[in-house]
Amino acid sequence: MVHMTRQNKTYRLVLLSILTAIIILQTFVPMLGNIPIGVFSLTLIHITVIITAIVLGPWEGALIGGFWGVGSCLRAYLSPYSPIEMLIFTNPLVAVLPRVLVGLAAGYSYRFLRKVKLPDIPSMALSAVFGAVTNTVLVLGLIYIFYRQPYANFLHVSFSGLLPALLLIVVSNGIPEAIAAGVIAPIVSKALRRVVPESIK
């Protein structure tokens, strides 16, 4: 039993290490985690966080989300995609907090949906969508709270036009990101759960 426990801990650690490496690659290698579209960027990194939360649990998802957030801060300091990224994503409240909450939101919503007997794949899909929406709403909401004037200038809109512009980003970016998460995360999570020992889930 002790041997199996150590083996499971090692398995979990290895899996978390692999997922962390994937997050680092997605953060710093262009087109792997963020696809620039004009002044906006389509995010795919959240899918890795969501998969971690579904397969290993909400706190593991939060941990991987934290690595994503810290990586975003570092990238904003070292090689930002734009001047506005250097301003916004060097703030841990914007860069780190929402990404941690993505893992918690996806992981706990998945557990809740399974507890109420929703089938596995729909539970994964809905949890993934909820995690993606959490990221979009929190990041844009915090940008509006802390950086609304600089962000309005960056988007070349008036201060009063910023809120409609943010809603446009939700539609143009947030919805595709949520759909991508809802499709990809269940496929990958289901495959991983087949090979992950039941005792470490």
Automatic annotation (TrEMBL):
<feature type="transmembrane region" description="Helical">
    <location>
        <begin position="12"/>
        <end position="29"/>
    </location>
</feature>
<keyword id="KW-1133">Transmembrane helix</keyword>
<dbReference type="InterPro" id="IPR024529">
    <property type="entry name" value="ECF_trnsprt_substrate-spec"/>
</dbReference>
<feature type="transmembrane region" description="Helical">
    <location>
        <begin position="159"/>
        <end position="184"/>
    </location>
</feature>
<feature type="transmembrane region" description="Helical">
    <location>
        <begin position="93"/>
        <end position="113"/>
    </location>
</feature>
<protein>
    <submittedName>
        <fullName>Membrane protein</fullName>
    </submittedName>
</protein>
<keyword id="KW-0472">Membrane</keyword>
<keyword id="KW-0812">Transmembrane</keyword>
<feature type="transmembrane region" description="Helical">
    <location>
        <begin position="35"/>
        <end position="56"/>
    </location>
</feature>
<feature type="transmembrane region" description="Helical">
    <location>
        <begin position="125"/>
        <end position="147"/>
    </location>
</feature>
<dbReference type="Pfam" id="PF12822">
    <property type="entry name" value="ECF_trnsprt"/>
</dbReference>
